[in-house]
Each structure stands twice: as structure tokens, then as C-alpha cells.
Amino acid sequence: MNKIAAILTSGILLMAHACGNKYQLRLESPKTIQVNQPLKLSVKETSGNPIDSIQYFINGKLIENHQAVDIRDYKLGKQAISATIYYNGEKRQLNNTIYFLGANAPEVYSYEVVNEYPHDNKAFTQGFVFHNGYFYESTGEYGVSSLRKVEIETGKVLQKVDLDRKYFGEGMTILNDKIYQLTWKNKVGFVYDLKSFELKKTFDYRESAEGWGLAHNNEKLIKTDGSERMWFLNPETFEEESFIETYTNKRKAEKLNELEFVKGKIYANIWQQNSILIVEPSNGAIEGIVNLKGLQSKAGQSGENNVLNGIAYDAENDRLFVTGKNWNKVFEIKLKEK
């Protein structure tokens, strides 16, 4: 079997010798499966040699019924499948990788513009939050990155702190009277006092590669790093306690960027796209896609760089705001099912 064929094969072949017999063992599983379908696992011994027993595992957890595994409660994304085979006093382990996909295709939404507000078109928006009647914004680009408090009706910057020139500002969120702000490639984040903007502490990233978007669910910080993953961080220790991977019923969504937590769901921008994903936080399923085509040109921009990248939510009044990189407007919008 050549190298390419070995990569493409759906099983993993193990050659073993036991009691003079040549065992050819293969762990069989699909490459992808939707979580509303039962998963079937099996081991084939293609030479007709006897197998005493087999144990099957998903992510190290023993599976009882390998003929019809109920995977509805699993998170989506990459999973480790393994089988331990016992034969003629021998034991071998085979490993496979499988990807769990969403059960249903995402709902598609359009939008209606309710209001428009001025926005600084020199602000390369990376993080965007509504809090107590004001917008708070993190801006990017080396040498001009900042944290801002902005008056909604006028777009006037009421309070501002500039980052050191070596930092590229990224996502931000507000939790428990603290502002949390990410940087892009420096693997460091900042914590400020909400009222004074005084820097209180810094924190380091751990397994997550970079800093992109940031939000919270009232308990954990939610962070993106440019991949398909959303990380859940302890807001005091900054430990990356868990993650989800975002998938539709067909494929993953990468380059996840700015975030907002809205009515129990995670709203996420994708870099270089004018759309929002609506993600179920328990498993990473993409339940909705909001097509915001047309807003970029309304905000005086075009191209792949100055795209949508700001989502803010006023929970008390159920208002959703969006803006983008160097846009001259903030839009209050309502979602409409297509």
C-alpha cells in the first residue's frame, strides 16, 4: 500500500503474528457521521483467524453497544475511536479518527436595519460590546490598537486607552465590572477596571494558539483563536477548561472571530465574511447563519479585510448591533427567517 492509499483508507491495518498465524486486523468506522445517526464500529480480521473479544472506546470511554452507539449527546468535531482486541493470549489496540457533524442544516436568516449610528471609520474593530447604555470597543492594527468607551448616538469616544505599539488589539468583553481584552499573536490578554480603564492584570494564553474573539456566558469567558474552536476560560485563573468545535451538518467553520452571547447562543463572525453564525454552546452545532450582505457597502467599505467584525447585544431591550473594521456606521438590526 503506497503512502497516499494509506492516508485515504477508512480503516487502520495492523499486522501481527500469534501462534504462527498471521493476523490482519482493521478497525472500521465512518470518517464523518451526523449525531442523529447511530454509529457502528467493528473490527475485521481478514485472514479468518479467531478473535476472543473486543472492547470499543470513544475518547477513552468504553462503549457497550458498538453496533449502534447513540452519539446525540456528544460534542461535534474530532473524536478518537479505539478498539482493544484480545486473541490467542495477545492484545492489540487500533485507533481511528472520526468527525461528528450536526444533526440538521442551519436555518438561514436575513436582516432588517432598525437604526443607524455613527462609527469611527479609523477604528479597526476587533471587539464590540454594549454595556449600560454605551458601546465598548477594542481596535486593532499595530501602533494604533486601543480600548474605547463610545457614546452611541454620536459615536464620540468618551474614554480611551492606547495599547503599546507591539500589541495588536483583538476581542474584548465585560464581566463583573472588569474589561477583558485579547491581543492577537502576543499570547497575552489584559484585565482593566471597567470604570477607570486602569490595567489590573495580564494573563497568558495556554493551549489556544492566538487571540481573536472574546465573549462570556455570565460564568466563563468564551474565546476564539482563528480555528474552528471556541474555548471556555475560567475568568479568574484563565485556565482553558474546555472547548467546542463548530460544525454544520456537513463541515466545520474555521476562522471564528468576534463573539457575542445572545439568548443562550453564541453569535460569531467569520474573518473575511459578512455573516454571523449562531452556535449552540453545549456541542458546537451551527444552528443558524445570518447573511448580512449589503451592510459593508452601506458602511463605506468593500473587500475582504474591512468586513463585518463587531456584534453587541442589549439584553434588557433586546437590541442587536453590528459594525465592522473601519466602518462608518453601527447598525441596529433584527433577524428575519428566510
Task: Kindly describe this structure.
Residues 1-20 have low confidence and may be disordered. This protein has helices at 3-8, 295-298; strands spanning 11-18, 21-28, 32-34, 42-45, 53-58, 61-63, 77-87, 90-101, 107-118, 125-131, 134-139, 146-151, 157-162, 169-175, 178-183, 188-193, 199-204, 214-216, 221-224, 229-233, 240-245, 256-262, 265-270, 275-279, 286-291, 308-314, 319-324, 329-337. The chain is mainly beta. It has two helices and 28 strands. It has two domains: 3-101, Immunoglobulins (Immunoglobulin-like); 107-337, Methylamine Dehydrogenase, Chain H. It is elongated and about 80 Å long.
- Helix/strand/pairing category: mainly beta
| Quaternary class | single chain
Mean model confidence by pLDDT: 90
CATH architecture label name of the largest domain = 7 Propeller
- Number of extended strands: 28
Quickly name the level 1 CATH class of the largest domain: Mainly Beta
Helix content: under 10%
The major pleated sheet works out as: 8 strands, mixed
End-to-end Cα distance, whole Å, is 49 Å
CATH superfamily of the largest domain: YVTN repeat-like/Quinoprotein amine dehydrogenase
Residue ranges: pLDDT <50 for 5 or more in a row? 1-20
Total discrete domains: 2
How would you briefly describe this protein structure?
With 338 residues, this protein is mainly β. The chain contains two helices and 28 strands. The protein has helices at residues 3-8, 295-298, and strands spanning 11-18, 21-28, 32-34, 42-45, 53-58, 61-63, 77-87, 90-101, 107-118, 125-131, 134-139, 146-151, 157-162, 169-175, 178-183, 188-193, 199-204, 214-216, 221-224, 229-233, 240-245, 256-262, 265-270, 275-279, 286-291, 308-314, 319-324, 329-337.
